[in-house]
């Protein structure tokens, strides 16, 4: 299982420092607030920092998919996010652009109904489908059980990520449930020693 270290709600200078500290992560995420606060600059000013894994920008595209995906892939992103609740035409064009660039698309399933997920489940074989427990809704109990149930309900979805207040103790059960990517924000970036916290998460994920 991969660990995605999510950097969010910090000044750009702090984001640069965190990327340097978290260079060993499988995926480093520049969160939505960074993309909103700084636009493409958040990527342009950080893409050259040495790191082991991929760089995801959580732009949460819901329209203008081709334009946004092209701009951010051209600027150096490896993975971009699109909202699953958006128009299917938007998801289609985002996926086409990702495939064209040899990059990846993560579909954020926040507020997607079962009917909606069924509609898009088999449409994008290389995409990552991101289960998203909204920050505003609070901590969800039995996160591993939620992932296991999701995978059973939608077996055609091969790649699953999860965001939403994940803690170190969640990782073994999430790995056993077949999660591909655990997205961890404050559990890493809010720690006294973010690099050590990342190492702890990655050791549990192995």
Could you please describe the fold and organization of this structure?
With 206 residues, the protein is α/β, with parallel strands linked by helices. It is built from ten helices and eight strands. Strands 1-2-3-4-5-6-7-8 form an eight-stranded parallel barrel, surrounded by five helices.
Summarize the structure.
Helix content is 41%, strand content 20%. It has ten helices and eight strands. 41% of the residues are buried.
Provide tags for this entry.
alpha/beta, 10 helices, globular
CA-based shape: globular
The strand order across the widest sheet is 1-2-3-4-5-6-7-8
Tell me the distance between the termini: 7 Å
- What is the β-strand count? 8
Q: Can you count the helices?
A: 10
The helix content, as a percent range, equals 40-55%
Average pLDDT score: 95
Q: What gyration radius follows from the Cα positions, in whole Å?
A: 16 Å
The class by helix and strand makeup works out as: alpha/beta
- Describe the biggest sheet? 8 strands, parallel, barrel
Which regions have little confidence, pLDDT < 50, spanning 5+ residues?
none
- Secondary-structure element order, N to C: EHEHHEHEHEHEHEHEHH
Strand content: 15-25%
List the helices and strands and how they pair.
Layout: E1 2-7, H1 12-21, E2 27-30, H2 32-38, H3 41-44, E3 54-61, H4 65-74, E4 79-83, H5 88-101, E5 104-108, H6 114-120, E6 128-132, H7 143-153, E7 160-163, H8 171-176, E8 181-184, H9 186-189, H10 194-205
Parallel strand pairs: 1-2, 1-8, 2-3, 3-4, 4-5, 5-6, 6-7, 7-8
């Amino acid at each position: 299982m991969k660990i995605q270290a999510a950097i969010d709600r910090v000044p750009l200078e702090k984001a640069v420092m965190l990327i340097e500290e978290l260079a060993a992560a499988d995926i480093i995420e520049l969160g939505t607030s960074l993309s909103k606060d700084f636009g493409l600059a958040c990527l342009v000013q950080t893409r050259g920092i040495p790191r082991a894994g991929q760089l995801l920008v959580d732009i949460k595209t819901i329209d203008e998919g081709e334009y946004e995906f092209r701009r951010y892939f051209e600027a150096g992103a490896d993975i971009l996010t699109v909202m699953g609740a958006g128009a299917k035409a938007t998801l289609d064009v985002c996926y086409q652009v990702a495939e064209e660039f040899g990059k990846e698309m993560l579909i954020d399933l926040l507020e997607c109904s079962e009917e909606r997920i069924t509609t898009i489940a088999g449409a994008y074989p290389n995409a990552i489908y991101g289960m998203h427990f909204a920050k505003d809704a609070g901590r969800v109990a039995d996160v591993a059980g939620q992932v296991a149930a999701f995978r059973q309900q939608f077996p055609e979805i091969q790649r699953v990520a999860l965001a939403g207040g994940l803690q170190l103790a969640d990782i073994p059960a999430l790995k056993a449930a077949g999660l591909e990517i655990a997205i961890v924000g404050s559990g890493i970036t809010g720690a006294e020693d973010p690099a050590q916290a990342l190492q702890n998460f990655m050791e549990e994920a192995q």
